[in-house]
Amino acid sequence: MTEETEELPSSKLGTKEYWDSAYNHELSNYKRNGDIGDVWFGEESIERVVTWMLESALVNVQSSVVDLGCGNGAFLLYLQVDLINDEDKEKIKTSEFDVTHDKGTYDAVSLCPEDPKSKRLSYIKAVHRITKENGLFIITSCNWVHHELIEHFSEYFSKEHIIPTPTFKFGGKVGTQVTCIVFRKVSK
Ligand SMILES: C[S@@+](CC[C@H](N)C(=O)[O-])C[C@H]1O[C@@H](n2cnc3c(N)ncnc32)[C@H](O)[C@@H]1O
Asked: What is one GO cellular-component annotation here (predicted)?
């Protein structure tokens, strides 16, 4: 992060209490009526990344993948990787992954009411630490646009590819609802 970033207005979505309560609620709904809960940014946001992974020569079935802030785990169910049992969750603490994936988690961290800048930086460093040398970090964000993410992560990751997302036009300007970028880890 070299340029001064204007932080986002803080929100309860940036607190652990909010997410603990949201997922307790989702879990009880799931147990009661099988509702799988929120799929943030829609199922197409998962399909977009999984399709890219399948088609890219950069990721294969041997690749280890971790979904950071996985929520209800919908992304992992698509991949059908076995990161949802306790043994594998333990591994996350000590492992490095070929692919680290984030959908909405950096967004949530950015909304932290207390010192979001240092929280974002800690997050970026943690992602760098658990991504293998030359590994990939794939992020989908609704709070930051391409150039902001590229700038935030620039010390630790370089842009490998932008996965296109749907655009809309408003007032003569073209925008996107979500941004999706594949980064490559930079050696430190
Ligand atoms: C918008 S939700 C996205 C959930 C999931 N990735 C998805 O796409 O459905 C944000 C997620 O970030 C997680 N989160 C927020 N701050 C976190 C932190 N400091 N460490 C780990 N996870 C965090 C929340 O628990 C929540 O699961």
From this structure: cytoplasm
**If you measure from the C-alpha of residue 41 to the centroid of ligand 1, how many angstroms do you get, rounded to a whole number?**
13
Domain residue spans in the chain?
12-185
Using one digit for the tens of pLDDT, what is the confidence trace for 29-63?
Answer: 999 998 989 999 999 999 999 999 989 989 988 89
106 class by beta-carbon count within 10 Å (0-12 exposed, 13-18 middle, 19+ buried): buried
The H or E element that residue 59 is part of is: none
How far is ligand 1, taken at its centre, from the CA of residue 171, in Å? 33
Whether 112 has a pLDDT exceeding 80, the answer reads yes
Phi, psi values for residue 77, rounded to 5°: -65, -35
Candidates 1.10.8.60, 3.40.50.300, 3.40.50.150, 1.10.3380.30; CATH matching 12-185: 3.40.50.150
